[in-house]
Amino acid sequence: MNGLPEPRVTPDGAAPDAIPAASEELDADALHAIGRALVDAGRAVTARLESVLCAWELSPARWQVLRRLWSTGDCSCSDLAASLHVSRSRITAVTDDLVHAGLVEREHPFGDRRIVLVRLSAAGRERVEAVLQQTTTEFGPVYGHLDSGRRAELVSTLELLTRHLSAAPQPAARRPGSPARPRHAEPARVPTALRTTASGSRT
């Protein structure tokens, strides 16, 4: 749930590299229903996950880094940033916090100070394993209402939707024909639950 998905293949064994054209036009009601369902599900999952992480004094951003290091082992900040689709500066700030908390260690392989790798400390590994056990307890019964086929279909559908959204042109900053927003105007506020990274967790 918190890691990046592995590349998938279609039932015929081909990699789904090409995004097919839309098969049908959707009206406003259908679009609203899809959007509302995604937002409601996202809020519910985020709230439950944040409740678990809060008990372990972790933010979603810190959890993403810890979970990735638990999966991959030693890793550079550049590789972490690329795999989690966030900026290098953001990863550096998060790893600084984790090092200060004693959950992550930095090392210079072969004594080369130009190269910096980060890895879980013993305390960090224990923390990840404890959180994983609790998330299994919290989410297992919820996702268990879906059989394995529906779970696989859900993951595949969400991954496909993410690919379509990533490939689609960015929406216009203003309505067609409306005047440009004054430079001093404040940007629209985004609800906390919707401020997510490209992998789906808040930063």
From TrEMBL:
Comp. bias intervals (Polar residues): 194-203
Instruction: Extract the ranges annotated as region (Disordered).
Output: 165-203
Q: Which species?
A: Kineococcus xinjiangensis
Keyword annotations? DNA-binding
Task: Specify the domain of life of the species encoding this protein.
Answer: Bacteria
Q: Which Pfam families match?
A: MarR
Which InterPro entries does the record match to this protein?
HTH_MarR-typ, MarR/SlyA-like, WH-like_DNA-bd_sf, WH_DNA-bd_sf
Question: HTH marR-type domain: which residues?
Answer: 31-166
Q: What is this protein called?
A: DNA-binding MarR family transcriptional regulator
Q: Name one GO molecular function term.
A: DNA-binding transcription factor activity
Q: Where is the composition biased (Low complexity)?
A: 167-180
Q: Which GO terms describe its biological process?
A: response to stress
